[in-house]
């Protein structure tokens, strides 16, 4: 039963059409309990573009209107993130992974990290900060982060490197000065310094699709993305991750996620930290 009185008619038939489309195109599951969430995320667009008619909105999706399909995907994805979210992952990188890669990759002097499902960029910029702290004095090392997401809006924000100053609560005043420049006109905004941006390449990528990059990666972060996927999609995804990560490479997942019964290719080495079997 619907819990809220809605401004526009939003029937179970509208909801099933929308949820079937979203699951097929993103892997994100939308059980009936998400009906209110879907309505609240879409109603403002349906008001503006379709005079409040979910019928017309669903027709546009069924007729393959690319702009509306993109609007729907961008509205439904959950983009919550933060700088140094799950800080223990970044501590682990600096304490164990980077020193190990210094030895393992000493002939190639190359390190590749993939932030898969990077949202508005706080995760790849946190990785860039760790890389900079560790590798800045090793100028002959080639270290890069590939940051990808399905949602074009969050990627655009990520690539701009511009954030509201209140997003920086995790940083000390000195750290803020080291990594960000304060806006001159709008002093409530900061921009990530360009030397950090230079570590990162942002690209749009749907994780359900074939991975176009050659890889291989030393480390993959795919955190707080698979919670919305069903088990079969998770299995397939981690199988394909295992093909892009080097033997012994590290896989970091979100705090409420697990690879138990999902992948035999990765073994647990810490709290939500895995390694690809050699
Ligand atoms: C909750 S955010 C996680 C951000 C970051 N990894 C973190 O843990 O803070 C989940 C991100 O996954 C992205 N996403 C969801 N389904 C996706 C898919 N099929 N392909 C690529 N990205 C997807 C969403 O757009 C969203 O930005």
UniProtKB/TrEMBL annotation:
Query: Where's the CheR-type methyltransferase domain?
Result: 3-278
Answer yes or no on keyword Methyltransferase: yes
Q: Which reaction does it catalyse?
A: L-glutamyl-[protein] + S-adenosyl-L-methionine = [protein]-L-glutamate 5-O-methyl ester + S-adenosyl-L-homocysteine
Q: Which keywords belong to this entry?
A: Methyltransferase, S-adenosyl-L-methionine, Transferase
**Enzyme Commission number(s):** 2.1.1.80
What biological function has been recorded for the protein in this entry? Methylation of the membrane-bound methyl-accepting chemotaxis proteins (MCP) to form gamma-glutamyl methyl ester residues in MCP.
The record's listing under PANTHER family reads:
CHEMOTAXIS PROTEIN METHYLTRANSFERASE
What protein does this entry describe?
Answer: Chemotaxis protein methyltransferase
Could you tell me the gene encoding this protein? cheR34H
């Amino acid at each position: 039963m619907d819990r809220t009185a809605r401004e526009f008619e939003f029937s179970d038939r509208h909801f099933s059409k929308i949820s079937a489309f979203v699951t097929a195109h993103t892997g994100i599951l939308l059980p009936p309990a998400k009906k209110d969430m879907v309505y609240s995320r879409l109603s403002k667009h349906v008001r503006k573009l379709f005079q409040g008619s979910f019928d017309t909105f669903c027709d546009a999706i069924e007729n393959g209107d690319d702009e509306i399909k993109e609007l729907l995907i961008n509205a439904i994805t959950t983009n919550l993130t933060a700088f140094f979210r799950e800080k223990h992952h970044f501590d682990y990188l600096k304490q164990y992974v980077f020193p190990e890669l210094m030895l393992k990759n000493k002939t190639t002097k190359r390190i590749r990290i993939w932030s898969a499902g990077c949202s508005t960029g706080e995760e790849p910029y946190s990785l860039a900060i760790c890389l900079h702290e560790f590798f800045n004095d090793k100028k002959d090392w080639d270290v890069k982060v590939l940051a990808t997401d399905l949602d074009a809006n969050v990627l655009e924000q990520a690539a701009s490197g511009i954030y509201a100053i209140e997003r920086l609560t995790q940083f000390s005043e000195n750290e803020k000065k080291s990594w960000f420049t304060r806006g001159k006109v709008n002093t409530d905004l900061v921009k990530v310094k360009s030397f950090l941006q230079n570590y990162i390449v942002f690209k749009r990528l749907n994780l359900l699709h074939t991975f176009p990059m050659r890889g291989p990666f030393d480390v993959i972060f795919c955190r707080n993305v698979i919670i919305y996927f069903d088990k079969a999609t998770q299995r397939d995804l981690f199988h394909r991750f295992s093909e892009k990560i080097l033997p012994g490479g590290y896989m970091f997942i979100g705090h409420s996620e697990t690879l138990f019964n999902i992948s035999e290719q990765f073994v647990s080495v810490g709290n939500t930290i895995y390694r690809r079997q050699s």
